[in-house]
Each structure stands twice: as C-alpha cells, then as structure tokens.
C-alpha cells in the first residue's frame, strides 16, 4: 500500500489544527500508520529540506520548522501521495483553493500549516528520516476491501 509523510508544521500545532487536519485524512478514507509530536533537531530540518539548500529562504525555513513542535505522520492508501497534495492545496496559501488545508487555514507561504511528500521517492526518504521501522505500524480494520 502506498505511504506518504505528512507533517503539521509549528504554526498548525500552535493554532490547534492537528485534530482538524487528522480528521480530514481520516474522513477521506486513508489510514494513519505512524504519528508523533516532536521537536525537529536542526540537522534533521536541514536534511529534510536539503533540496532547498541553495534557495534564499532556506535559513528561514529551517528556523521556522525548528521553532516549535510539529506533528509528524505516516498515512497510507491508494494514491495517498498525490491525493494528500491535492487536499493540502498550493504551496502559497494565496493560490490555494478554498476547501484545501492551505486554502482554508493558511495565510503566508512561510507558514502554510502542513508539509506533504511530493513523490514516491520523497515519501520513502522522509518516512525514513522521521520514523524508525518499528514506529510505522501494520494493522487492519478490514470489513470490506474498500475500507482500510
Ligand atoms: P512542503 O515541502 O513544505 O510540503 O511544501 P511544498 O512542497 O508545497 O513546497 P516546496 O517548494 O517544497 O517548499 C518548501 C517550503 O518552503 C517554504 N517556501 N518559502 N519564501 C518563499 O518564497 C518560499 N517558498 C517556499 C514553504 O513553506 C514551503 O512549504
Ligand atoms: Mg516540498
């Protein structure tokens, strides 16, 4: 089953949006298989956002993501990587459609509430960075094959 890494950023945690965000993915039908509230060490933040190292906003990005606790999650389900990105909305909340997480709750590109992996390769890399193998669980609530 496809898995993705999603994370409520420090602004989302401080604005009490963890429950709202978890609820959206639960209601969509995806399955939560890993989760933790954590502070991100500087080295992990730099590695996680390594692809943006040369960008002018890199320092700000690392400072922000390490500024307070985040809620890190692993979700699974069919097409979860692309669907979660659609549910998050555009990177800049000013361009994000109403009904998306960033469209409904975000105001600025720096504080856009949620992170989500953008490809299968990123998902695998990011899950590995944030979660030990034993922290991602495998469980079934199987009643019908379309509910997991
Ligand atoms: P994310 O990685 O956080 O899920 O967001 P994303 O894929 O939609 O966007 P990405 O291009 O990977 O950028 C990572 C984060 O950097 C911040 N950013 N700031 N000041 C700026 O121009 C700027 N551009 C991007 C955003 O917080 C974005 O989520
Ligand atoms: Mg990204």
Automatic annotation (TrEMBL):
Q: What is its EC number?
A: 2.7.4.6
Q: Which cofactors, by name?
A: Mg(2+)
List of residues that carry Phosphoserine: 122
**Source organism superkingdom:** Bacteria
Instruction: Give the molecular function GO annotations.
Output: ATP binding; metal ion binding; nucleoside diphosphate kinase activity
Cellular compartments per GO CC? cytoplasm
SMART domains attached to this UniProt entry: NDK
Q: What is its main location?
A: cytoplasm
Residues recorded with modification Phosphothreonine: 91
> What are its GO biological-process terms?
CTP biosynthetic process; GTP biosynthetic process; UTP biosynthetic process
> What are the protein's UniProt keywords?
ATP-binding, Cytoplasm, Kinase, Magnesium, Metal-binding, Nucleotide metabolism, Nucleotide-binding, Phosphoprotein, Transferase
Known function:
Major role in the synthesis of nucleoside triphosphates other than ATP. The ATP gamma phosphate is transferred to the NDP beta phosphate via a ping-pong mechanism, using a phosphorylated active-site intermediate. (Microbial infection) Catalyzes the phosphorylation of dZDP to dZTP, when the bacterium is infected by a phage that produces the substrate for the synthesis of dZTP (2- amino-2'-deoxyadenosine 5'-triphosphate), which is then used by the phage as a DNA polymerase substrate.
Q: What is this protein called?
A: Nucleoside diphosphate kinase
Organism in which the protein naturally occurs: Neobacillus bataviensis
Its gene name is ndk
């Amino acid at each position: 089953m496809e898995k993705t890494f999603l994370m409520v950023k420090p602004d989302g945690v401080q604005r009490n949006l963890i429950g709202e965000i978890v609820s959206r993915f639960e209601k969509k039908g995806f399955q939560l298989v890993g989760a933790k509230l954590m502070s991100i060490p500087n080295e992990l933040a730099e590695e996680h956002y390594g692809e943006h190292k040369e960008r002018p906003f890199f320092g700000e990005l690392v400072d922000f993501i390490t500024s307070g606790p985040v809620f890190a999650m692993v979700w699974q389900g069919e097409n979860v990587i692309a669907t979660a990105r659609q549910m998050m909305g555009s990177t800049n909340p000013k361009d994000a459609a109403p009904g998306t997480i960033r469209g409904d709750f975000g105001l600025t590109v720096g504080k856009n509430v949620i992170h989500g992996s953008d490809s299968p390769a990123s998902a695998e890399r990011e899950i590995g960075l944030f979660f030990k193998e034993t922290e991602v669980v495998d469980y079934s609530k199987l009643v019908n094959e379309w509910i997991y």
